[in-house]
Amino acid sequence: QNHLASRLARHAGRTPDKVFATRPGQSDVTYAQLFAGAERMAAALLAAGLAPGDRVAVQVEKSMEALQLYIGTVLAGGIFLPLNTGYTAAELGYFLGDATPAVVVCDPARRAEIAPLAGSAAVFDLAPDGTGSLIDALPDVAGFDAVARGAGDLAAILYTSGTTGRSKGAMLSHANLASNSEMLVGYWQFTDADVLIHALPIFHTHGLFVATNVALFAGASIVFLAKFDPEAILDAMPGATAMMGVPTFYTRLLENPRLTREAASNMRLFVSGSAPMLVDTHEKWEERTGLRILERYGMTETNMNTSNPYDGERRPGTVGFPLPGVELRVMADGAEVATGEIGVIEVRGANVFQGYWQMPEKTAEELKPDGWFITGDLGIVDERGYVSIVGRSKDLIISGGFNVYPKEIEEAIDDLPGVVESAVIGVPHPDFGEAVVAVVVGEACDPSAISGALSGQLAKFKQPKHVEIVADLPRNTMGKVQKKELRDRYGQLFT
Ligand code: ATP
Ligand code: MG
């Protein structure tokens, strides 16, 4: 028995001829075809010397074959280790050195650069069009007996996005992944009648585990899009029922006049996560489509922790309630805070990872022996139980000895006329320790008008000491604002 693979393959056995994926301009892929390919991948991995627990490090463009490689790795008893396609050779050197994989799969265009970094691993390549030496190595056999793996064995190591520092490899067990996906299918009411628009990258937890695993566990179909493209999403929407995206998907779609109530009339669910969604985006989306986006909160280390309800009130600006099986508490100075107070969010449950790969000290700091994981996110639970994320502990600003929560200032700025969005950071200041700096997107905005408007609204210590107008905020591939980069950029303003 292979704990995760048996669940992933459940519907392949029951409905082999059902379409798993439609692909614009390419042939459909049935459940039987998906798994036949995955089984051949598994056989190829074993032939390459993969043993249970070995890592398969993968940096390739999104393709059906890449998805089959994920499933094939699980079937073969390996640990799937996807890497962001944006990583440079220098970054890959760190990841491959850290992960010591037995197999490395890369894009043929980068093979010459990556092979020397692969150590003793077997190296294969896989191109965006689904060709490559990995495909050439597939044995011409049907069927594969999944390598036995238990609930506690590792299925994947996923590196965190690196928003707050160097990416850490989160070790995820078969049960971590299976339990969360199983629960989400029920919570978000996925069935085999669903057609999910899949436009997220598959090197990150959102596209790989939330979207792919939930679709497979439910026996649903996906519209498989290699990249985020508003036109392709709008083409797919009339035939789809659900979409999962990061907030930038939604803001970009709102810019497209094709997004109408009519276009979304077949859709039952829009999910957003990975980064905070502005209340304004929630409101505009509802005006345009008549549907309320369901915002949820998760992490590489934990999969999904909280979600707005499927049936109850979805509250913009919140990430909803702790999901079934997930315990959540908000802590400050070693104790739980009162309702409505800010503290660090901790979670516990079957979803919580097994620790950081090769980082025992970091694991010990953040994952307590009694199972509570310190997320590093600051949050509030209100009297109705809704959780709100107010930022990350690493982004907390301490100015003149006072705590300043960036989100409060950002919300005040975002409400001002002409402002599109903003990011508030702390930078070194000789008198205050840190000074509040606001980086604002809004072509027509004037820094002194913003400062003037805020002075009537916010306590002096919260008011930005400097307002910078920019064309856009630096974001990574998951749409997360890179505050670290902003702190580097504006770090010298007062020193
Ligand atoms: P690193 O841990 O390497 O600094 P990261 O935390 O951005 O990077 P991920 O695991 O991809 O890496 O992201 C998880 C984080 O994303 C959460 O801890 C939280 O800060 C943020 N996040 C996810 N969903 C939401 C949401 N709905 N609202 C606000 N923040 C969110
Ligand atoms: Mg993190």
Strands, helices and their partners?
Layout: H1 3-8, H2 10-14, E1 19-23, E2 26-30, H3 31-47, E3 55-59, H4 64-75, E4 79-82, H5 89-99, E5 103-106, H6 111-114, E6 122-125, H7 133-136, E7 154-159, E8 169-173, H8 174-187, E9 195-198, H9 205-218, E10 221-224, H10 230-236, E11 242-245, H11 247-254, E12 269-272, H12 279-289, E13 294-299, E14 303-307, E15 321-322, E16 326-332, E17 335-336, E18 343-349, H13 360-366, E19 373-381, E20 387-392, E21 397-399, E22 402-404, H14 406-414, E23 421-429, E24 433-441, H15 447-455, E25 466-470, H16 483-490
Parallel strand pairs: 1-10, 3-4, 3-5, 5-6, 9-10, 9-11, 11-12, 12-13, 24-25
Antiparallel strand pairs: 1-2, 7-8, 13-14, 14-15, 16-17, 16-18, 18-19, 19-20, 21-22, 23-24
This protein binds adenosine-5'-triphosphate (ATP) and magnesium ion.
Distance, first to last CA? 61 Å
Radius of gyration: 23 Å
Q: Tell how many strands the DSSP assignment holds.
A: 25
Mind describing the biggest β-sheet? 9 strands, mixed
Structural class: alpha/beta
Bound molecule types: adenosine-5'-triphosphate, magnesium ion
User: What is the average per-residue confidence, as pLDDT, rounded to a whole number?
Assistant: 96
Poorly predicted sequence stretches spanning 5 or more consecutive residues: none
Q: Approximately how much beta-strand content do the residues carry?
A: 25-35%
Largest beta sheet: strand ordering: 2-1-10-9-11-12-13-14-15
Shape: globular
DSSP summary: helix tally: 16
* Percent range of helical residues: 25-40%
